[in-house]
Amino acid sequence: MERILDRFARGEVLVADGAMGTMLMAMGLPSGQSPESINLQRPDWLEDIARRYLEAGADILQTNTFGGSPLKLALYGLQALTVAINAAAVAAVRRVAGERAYIAASCGPSGRLLEPYGDVSEAEMADNFRRQARALCEAGVDLVCVETMSDLREAVLAVRAFREAAPDLAVAATLTFDRTSRGFFTIMGNTVAEAVPALTGAGADILGSNCGHGLATMVEIAAEFRRHWTGPLLIQANAGLPGMRDGVPFWPETPEDFAAGATALLALRVNLIGGCCGTTPAHTAAIRQAVDRGGRPRQL
Amino acid sequence: MEILANIATALIGGDDPMVAQLTREALNQGLPARRILDEGLIAGMNVVGEQFKSHEIFLPDVLLAARAMYAGMDLLKPMLAAQGISGRGKVVLGTVRGDLHDIGKNLVAILLRGAGFEVIDLGKDVAPEEFVAAARRENATLIGMSALLTTTMPVMKQVVDLLRQEGLHGQIRTIIGGAPVSAEYAREIGADGYAYDGASAVDRVKEYLEAH
Predict the structure, then answer these.
(1) What ipTM does this complex have?
(2) Is A189 at the interface with chain B, CB within 8 A?
(3) Are residues B54 and B95 in the same domain?
(4) Which residues of chain B are within 8 Å of residue A189 when distances are taken between CB atoms?
(5) Going by C-beta distance under 8 Å and a sequence separation of 6 or more, which residues neighbour residue A123?
(6) What is this structure's pTM?
């Protein structure tokens, strides 16, 4: 397959898939169970999800390894299975996608805080991400997505770990921002302006934001990125914030909302658009249509 | 008192050795533990809480200030207990069953303690029965629940329902918070209140406990 960065360089816009965790819940993942434990128990669920996103038009499929770093798996006593859990996730998506889509290794936060705020040293955190990076890269992914980070220091350690494990792979890094009266900040107080040099310095090729409070906010965050970063930009919004209907959570933003949001993101020259919590293959299909209408290569 | 103002300043700056040293000095000067707590530690945490609320500072600064607060509180606790002085009220707090995310809950505990409330922190993955048993045992009239996951939000309703079954509804109140939770959800499950963030959690607790 052609290198993804070359396609961005030509001005092409690609579509990333949507939510994983909320899809697994809908399929019956029990409350309180590690979503990554599914990789060994029910790889057929992963194949099913990958197939539905592929059919919806996703160019990039993410692995179910968001919580697959050993520190995070340790919350469930699964850290000894780090290699198997990460490898199984890649294998499941590859069985479905073959070479028809790029497979992105998902890497989420460790769930722990770095010293001096928490009890994890930088060395321990770096080792945590190195172990996951090795497992994922050896299993054969096409790009990396370090995502939903709130602590820029932790994000930098994760990006470096993947850069070391696979010097030739494209590495994306996304942070989650909250809107405040003083602008957008992560929980740890990081801004877009400081994230851009830190993440690119660590070796990230694609920057952006995911999760958060829905599409309208994401469009503003994308605009903020564009003030500081002209390179490849990745945006994956939640389908809004969940509400509860008859005891079941639901997400308010519809595929139609996502088609409109994707069009706004295209105007900001976002290169890779996908979904996060609460999105479904229907949202992916809506993004696909919006991108096909407005985001085809500008130079042919 | 200058030393009390210095304790507050050291706390705001997250200087835990300095807070401990100044707290010892204040005790040696014969200042009452209660006054050191109120005019030193709590005064400092009030500033931290306000700055956090207005996004001038962020979670890391609050965590360092909290560490400094605990450094002082640990020295005062034996004296406060011996004098039979309790705080402004007691809150039972925890992240609900199935949910292992406790950064937000810990922040709420810090801000509540910093505002002078006593917090019984049950940790994470707390069963509904544990919340209710702890509130009874501790004679607390308020339960605070946190959830980060949409899969664990329904546990909050189980706690509210359990309080009803045991006839404690109205006597023990519930406040919920966490990323996926909303005021609408609080109303739907019959919780007494919702807090958007740590600072508003303190406001809610003040409303309920000081009206009680």
Answers:
(1) 0.84
(2) yes
(3) no
(4) 57-61
(5) none
(6) 0.89
